[in-house]
Write a structure and sequence with these properties.
The chain is of the alpha/beta class. The chain is 36% helix and 21% strand.
């Protein structure tokens, strides 16, 4: 209790700093005589309405630039602006399990959090690179395509690349339901309100809900709250990792985090450098993903979704390309597989787990290599087969590969409530690979 009070007192502003609104430009407010740090939370008094909170996003000449956390209706020149909090914090603690929080750390369901709840600085330094233990323990997801062909480890960071409507939310719900972890932290950033409700009602089972903390900032909320929400979810995940727990951190979506930072950066006067994204976006993304990883005590395994406008234009998507280099692998969902009713719609040829070779044994590796070679052979001869130039019986090697690949794809089809033990998945893949040499 005393520790919690001490932490809260450290963030109390003892002297009242008051400035004035001087200018507005779009949704950005400019105040004068307001010497406060970047990222501070301030309050603008409005005579005819409730006070408006805003975040300090930059400085220009004599002005302090503010981005409101609500409607600017009723804002007038020379209205007073006072400092509320110079350090951004977020509640942490075991009492958050089963709760839903907004970007400010307030509960959206149930009673409010106790005033004694501890708080953590939003932008803590990530784990030092030299103190990170190596990732050596395989992470069981219960998903055959991932456990078999894209084996991950506890503490790994992966991206899920997908266009709209190909089963991204279903895949996230499978992680939340079936992954062998102690705690789940979900950051729903920039989602529609309807999607948030659907995730709560359908994605989480009763048991998984009890060990889950959800941080929500919907698409209609101000950009600073969307950024605070993802940082807040990182703080919560780190709290449980420090207790020695295995934490699963789901971020949906990292693209909308980038959109929020783009809005803030452009409002602060940053130049757009790549398809409208300012430089601060590309410095923010690695800082977020580096909060995951392993320590001597516990681990945070992260899966972040990356929304694609067009599957064919992924190489031209700045966010997807930037995250490719910062993550430990990627899972690609395709519309072609989804249209064929194959779920999860994971394209194995375009997906990769960088740590898989160090996490599996030689027998598993050999089976996967042979099956991938069979898939490549089928794809190489797909046009010949469809045109009738390659018929059954003409090429026995292709016939075996084709039959095994069809059986493998059938095995990888999986319902959301149908988890598969890892040992059963690997045994089945090894038996399928053996058929290639019969």
């Amino acid at each position: 209790m005393l520790t919690s009070l001490k932490e809260q007192l450290e963030h109390v502003t003892l002297s009242r700093i008051v400035g004035r609104i001087d200018q507005t430009c779009g949704n950005t407010l400019a105040a004068i005589d307001l010497p406060v740090p970047l990222g501070s939370l301030v309050q603008i008094d409005r005579p005819q309405a409730s006070p408006l909170k805003a975040e300090v996003i930059g400085f220009r000449d004599c002005w302090t630039l503010l981005l409101p956390l609500g409607s600017t209706e009723g804002i007038r020149r020379y209205q007073p602006v006072s400092l509320l909090q110079s350090t951004r914090t977020f509640p942490i603690g075991d009492n958050l399990l089963g709760r839903i929080l907004d970007g400010n750390g307030k509960t959206l369901e149930g009673p409010p959090l106790s005033v004694m709840t501890s708080r953590a600085n939003l932008c803590l330094k990530p784990i030092d690179a030299l103190t990170r233990p190596p990732i050596t323990q395989p992470f069981s997801t219960g998903i055959r395509a991932i456990d078999g062909f894209l084996t991950c480890g506890y503490g790994q960071r992966l991206g899920i690349h997908a266009t709209a409507g190909v089963g991204k939310s279903t895949l996230l719900s499978m992680f939340a339901r079936h992954a062998e972890v102690d705690v789940i932290v979900v950051a729903l950033i920039g989602e529609r309100g309807r999607e948030v409700r659907e995730f709560l009602d359908h994605a989480l089972s009763t048991e998984s809900r009890k060990r889950t903390v959800i941080v929500v900032a919907t698409s209609d909320e101000p950009a600073p709250l969307r950024i605070r929400a993802v940082w807040g979810s990182a703080c919560v995940a780190e709290h449980f990792r420090n207790q020695g727990k295995k934490v699963l951190w789901l971020i949906d979506s990292m693209t909308r985090v980038a959109h929020a930072q783009r809005e803030i950066g452009l409002a602060a006067g940053e130049p757009p450098v790549t398809r409208g994204y300012p430089p601060s976006v590309f410095s923010l993304l690695p800082r977020i993903v580096e909060r995951a990883g392993t320590t001597e005590r516990g681990s945070i395994t992260a899966f972040a979704t990356i929304l694609l406008e067009d599957e064919a234009e992924e190489a031209n998507d700045p966010c997807a390309e930037a995250l490719h280099g910062h993550l430990d692998g990627h899972i690609r969902l395709t519309r072609k597989l989804a249209a064929a009713g194959h779920y999860p719609a994971i394209d194995l040829a375009q997906s990769l787990s960088r740590l898989m070779p160090s996490l599996i044994n030689d027998q598993h590796r050999g089976a996967v290599d042979r099956l991938r070679a069979a898939f490549a052979l089928c794809k190489e001869n797909e046009l010949l087969r469809k045109s009738g130039l390659l018929r059954p019986g003409q090429n026995p090697e292709f016939d075996r590969a084709w039959n095994v690949c069809q059986d493998t794809m059938a095995f990888l089809r999986q319902g959301g409530n149908d988890p598969s033990p890892v040992h059963e998945t690997i045994d089945k893949l090894e038996r399928l690979a053996t058929r290639l040499s019969e």
